[in-house]
Design brief:
296 residues; globular
Length: 296
Amino acid sequence: MNLFGDKWTFLSFGESHGRAIGGVLDGVPSGLDIDMDMIRTQLLLRSGQNAVGTSPRAKNEEDEVEWLSGVMDGKTLGTPIAFLIRNTDARPEDYEWMRTHFRPGHADYTYQQKYGIRDWRGGGRASARETAARVVAGSIARQELEKRHISIHAELVQVGNETNPENFDTLLKQIQQEGDSIGGIVRCTVEGLPVGVGEPVFDKLQSHLAAAMMSINGCKGFDYGTGFDMSQKGSELYPEGQVPCASSGGIEGGISNGLPVVFRCAFKPTATIRQLYGGRHDACIAVRAVPVVEAM
């Protein structure tokens, strides 16, 4: 399924080493001013500009959005917004060996078994390259949310077992020099969300968030509020009279309670590592996942 959303719908298309990736965003109201500079900034963050732990290729990649429909003079028309991002740095020849080899931890084997055919050029639709289109669509949605005083901020809070951000660069440089990879955790905070978002029992707010985050390449876990932290007792987490509850991550009973919604996403180590496969691979995909988490 390549269609996402309800009130607004987003269709993503394209392969990592095809001519382009892109999307169609429908349901956007007319007259919304599009901040093109903000979209460029988010795309640069996703591409890993000046970020330790991202591949050299990522740092040479500059994504330019071609608006095909739905936008005129920087404003939305209320019609479907279609856009393209050309794959200017596609190098399918680097992946020639994948015609006959499956990479563990990737979608190579499962795509081949399910569909009987696969795009071996860097992973095709299963490549994280596809997330650039999500960043464009999410940036537009974000601008509508900001009009409603809802803000979204994500940050890298853990690399491997390291939780001190001051040590992240040193650790990532070490992993990069080893030609290896490591996992990481991204935390996201949504502020300004009113009370009442979410529909029990099968349409809870955390269910939507979890589905959105788990659709991101390499995301292996989602939690909110106290999540998987089993170190505290109920008497510490839920003191009598604390309503709404501060430790619930902004969601109670599947409904937003008016406090900041806080959740975390765990990303696996990059499955393709340089010491085994050569090429250009991220030491930690969580670094570039930050703007993708915000977009979704």
